[in-house]
Specification:
It is found in: Bacterial flagellum basal body. This is Flagellar P-ring protein. It comes from Elioraea tepida. Belongs to the FlgI family. Assembles around the rod to form the L-ring and probably protects the motor/basal body from shearing forces during rotation. By secondary structure, the chain is α+β, with helices and mostly antiparallel strands. The protein folds into 3 domains: 81 residues, 2-Layer Sandwich (Gyrase A, domain 2); 139 residues, no CATH class; 103 residues, no CATH class. Helices cover 22% and strands 34% of the residues. The protein has 8 helices and 25 strands. Strands 3-4-5-10-7-6 form a 6-stranded antiparallel β-barrel. A 4-stranded antiparallel β-sheet has the order 2-11-13-12. It has a 3-stranded mixed β-sheet with strand order 16-15-25. Helix 1 runs antiparallel to helix 7. The radius of gyration is 33 Å and the shape is flat. The protein starts with a helix and ends with a strand. The N terminus is likely disordered.
Amino acid sequence: MLRLAVMLVAIALSAAPADAQVRIKDIADVEGVRENQLVGYGLVVGLNGTGDRLAAAPFTRQSLIGMLERLGVNVRDQETRLDTKNVAAVMVTATLPGFARTGTRIDVHVAAMGDATNLTGGTLLVTPLLGADGEVYAVAQGQIATGAIAARGAAQSITRGVPTAGRIVSGATIEREVPFAFGRTSSLRLSLRNPDFTTARRVAEAINRFAREPVAAAIDPATVTVNISAGRAAQDPVGFITEIEQLRITPDQTARVIIDEANGIIVMGANVRVSTVAIAQGNLTIRITETPQVSQPNPFGQGETVVVPRTEIEVQENQNRRLGIVPANVTLEDLVRSLNALGVGPRDMIQILQAIKAAGALQAELEIM
């Protein structure tokens, strides 16, 4: 099955045109247009006896007491009597989209911190969500949906999904915006998701051909600067960026072979090349068969019953495996076809690739996971 998957990858790569192009939008991000992570700590109430045990979760007890005091309820004198199982301390996370405006609602994820067993049906109380700078950017509240099933009887229980983690759709309201004056900047930077000198230069050249003037330049393998302070870019920067995002280029790839030896997975890039090398893959099998026999004395004779061992050792060597020669500068498809012609399995193919690399004949980066 794995050999078939490797062959399908090779065929797909060889069948694709050599100048396969992709949009700049799919390989680069505009600096400033990014998401931000938010996190908060809150309480979930309304659980059906599946919340934290207050004796085992002091942070839940302290949070509950503090919340009640803010609401005007004094429980300090009765702190030792608090024994509810309907409250759970949770961590709340969310993603703040780029250019999100105040009042916009976003989804939040909730996960239990203590020994709560199920958050289904619980309600998250008002929880401030903080950014990396410690400022509050959103406030979350709402009923949690876990999508899990948990049932328990006297002698058996069943759980489907993760009942201690859930989601609140549109559960947070954005209270603060991330400042970014997009219309006031004189230049913007495109960040390549896979840094490469050749790809960065091709992106800059494509933008310059479209603008008909040198407005873009690659300053490093991961960054291309674009001047938007003059021409039509200054009049409509959003429209200009929209148009350059649709430009198509051919990204360059590093020749790389990825091997996951634990799972027997091999992934090879289209630029992998192999110098002339001879490959022989042996198949020596040693089979040991134990067939013990029972020896019994004759009737009315003297002696005792014993087990006599019988061992058969067989050595088999497949004589059809011969030395194969892989010619110089073969492509990915040729390499896979040559190895499959030798009857090489996925595990043996991993060892052969490592040996080819050790011999200096594999002109690619070999990465073992």
